């Protein structure tokens, strides 16, 4: 199971753990796991993406704005825009691209 595997890897991880959940011809669904304090540094997605918090709380940073997201909250991530995600608590997020 994807979520169980992520949580197991987080026990010893120093960085966020990502796993593919579902991949199609024109889309990709990923799950990222974070321990409190972990950060996915600035990067760009090549396709429009939606981030949904499944567990915990994160801060999504894009350009000059920070958005605090709790369980079941979501944000749209435009393609080719630099952004980062930092965990305020242990967290799981679902990313849908495409």
Plain-language structure description:
By secondary structure, this protein is mainly beta. It has one helix spanning 2-10; strands at 17-23, 28-34, 39-43, 49-55, 57-62, 65-70, 74-77, 83-87, 91-97. The strands form two sheets. A five-stranded antiparallel β-sheet has the order 1-2-9-4-7. The protein has a four-stranded antiparallel β-sheet with strand order 3-8-5-6, with no helix packed on it. The chain starts with a helix and ends with a strand.
For the record, give the distance between the C-alpha atoms at the N and C termini, rounded to a whole number: 23 Å
**Biggest pleated-sheet summary:** 5 strands, antiparallel
**How large a portion of the residues is in β-strands, by DSSP E?**
over 45%
Number of strands: 9
Low-confidence stretches: none
| Mean pLDDT metric | 97
Gyration radius (Cα, Å) is: 13 Å
Number of contiguous helices: 1
Secondary-structure element sequence? HEEEEEEEEE
Quaternary class: single chain
Shape: globular
Strands side by side in the biggest sheet: 1-2-9-4-7
Helix content: under 10%
Q: By helix and strand content, what is the structural category? A: mainly beta
Based on the model shown, name its key terms.
globular; five-stranded antiparallel sheet; 9% helix; mainly beta; 9 strands
Please summarize what this structure is:
This protein has one helix spanning 2-10; strands spanning 17-23, 28-34, 39-43, 49-55, 57-62, 65-70, 74-77, 83-87, 91-97. It is mainly beta.
């Amino acid at each position: 199971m994807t979520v169980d595997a992520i949580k197991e890897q987080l026990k010893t991880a120093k960085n966020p753990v990502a796993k593919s959940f579902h991949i199609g011809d024109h889309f990709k669904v990923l799950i990222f796991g974070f321990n409190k304090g972990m950060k996915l540094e600035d990067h760009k997605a090549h396709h429009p993406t939606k981030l949904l918090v499944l567990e915990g709380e994160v801060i999504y940073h894009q350009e000059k704005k920070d958005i605090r997201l709790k369980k079941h909250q979501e944000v749209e991530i435009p393609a080719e825009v630099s952004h980062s995600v930092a965990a305020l608590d242990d967290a799981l997020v679902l990313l849908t691209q495409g």
